[in-house]
Amino acid sequence: MPESTTYLAEGPRLGIRPYTLADGPEFTTRARESRELHRPWLFPPTTDTAYASYAGILIEDPTKAGFLLCERASGGDVAGFVNINNIVEGGFRCGALGYGAFAHAAGRGLMREGLGLVVRYAFDVLKLHRLEINVQPRNAASIAIARRCGFRLEGFSPDFLFIDGAWRDHERWALTAPLDRR
Questions:
Q1: Which one of 43, 45, 145, 147 is most buried, by most CB atoms within 10 A?
Q2: pTM exceeds 0.85, yes or no
């Protein structure tokens, strides 16, 4: 990332910024290096073509917002990502979060920091009222991050998403904006 790039939000170790098509080579390399960490929960793009389609949708679709988690100390290396999907405005003002850390950054608390930055951005800048995380019940790492970031378990959705060739059950976790941000 060029030194002149401005982050949308910054924490002690990370900054968040939107995806660009130019991030493809780094993103896909990190995704390939992280296959073992991500399987069977997550399948980020690992080829240039797949990344261009994936990032293009996050860049262009107004019902989505994608954020790269960049390590400030290393000059902006991409440590992970958080996407807000299915953004609904009006009386609902809600979005569904998806996220992942890359293997080189896993286990260092960066995902928690990055998710926290995106949550604050979603409430303060995007003016969303509610964020949801749908996670497979056996994905202990993802559930732990949701819990640490203040999300509450609200329910169970059988056969919720088609992932890795089958319909998978998910737990629904949610967080609403603090009263002073509503």
A1: 145
A2: yes
Residue 164: which pLDDT band, with cuts at 50, 70 and 90? Answer: confident
**Residue 35 phi, psi (nearest 5):** -55, -45
Q: Among 3.20.20.220, 3.30.750.24, 3.40.50.720, 3.40.630.30, name the CATH number for the domain at 9-181.
A: 3.40.630.30
Phi, psi (rounded to 5 degrees) for 25: -60, -45
Question: 2 in the Ramachandran plot: left (φ > 0), alpha (ψ -120 to 50) or beta?
Answer: beta
52-102: pLDDT as tens digits:
999 999 999 999 999 999 999 888 999 999 999 999 999 999 999 999 999
Q: Are 80 and 111 in contact (CB under 8 A)?
A: yes
